[in-house]
Amino acid sequence: ALSFFVSALTNGDPPLLADFWATKTQIKLYSSATISGTSGHKKVRDQCVEDFLSMLLLRRGLKTKLLVHELWHEKDIMFGYGAEPDSDLLKPREGMVQRHASLAERVQKWKHMSKEDLNAKVISPMMVEASEEAMKAGLLDGTAPWKARWKAR
């Protein structure tokens, strides 16, 4: 729904797509009310999509105003996937909020790493850290913290 809303505000352009790391390292969190697990999920989802297209005036008869963009725009697997951001967006500069500047500095270092080093030294540790946080919060199905959290409900 939010993607359609963004497209409605940008004349059909898609929202900025998440980068390769974000799309390939998803951690499946538990939800007691799953949508995709129901038998009529596809029908409900399709109707929801149609409703949003109509409400946001993105549907014109059988055609939509939605535009298509390339997912891969560079050969660089980590930084050439998804949105093609402003080239200066992730370059440290004066006046930048410290958190953003810190991220920009790390990204610049990452861009010079081999794929193997990037995976071993950056992506894998990030996945481990995120998984550990999700597990502690009881969001990973079947783990002891999950059982403790959801048994009480």
Structure description:
The chain starts with a helix and ends with a helix. Helices cover 46% and strands 3% of the residues.
Would you count the extended β strands for me?
2
Report the β-strand fraction as a percent range.
under 5%
SSE arrangement, N to C: HHHEEHHH
Strand order of the largest sheet: 1-2
Low-pLDDT parts are none
If you compute it from the alpha carbons, what radius of gyration comes out, rounded to the nearest whole angstrom?
20 Å
Helix content: 40-55%
* N- and C-termini, Cα separation: 29 Å
Which structural class best describes the helix and strand composition? mainly alpha
Q: Treating each run of at least 4 consecutive H or I residues as one helix, how many helices?
A: 6
How would you characterize the largest beta sheet? Answer: 2 strands, antiparallel
CA-based shape:
flat
Average per-residue pLDDT, rounded, comes to 78
In short:
The chain is an all-alpha fold and 153 residues long. It is 46% helix and 3% strand.
Topology of this protein?
Elements: H1 2-9, H2 20-24, H3 41-55, E1 59-60, E2 63-64, H4 98-110, H5 115-136, H6 144-151
Antiparallel strand pairs: 1-2
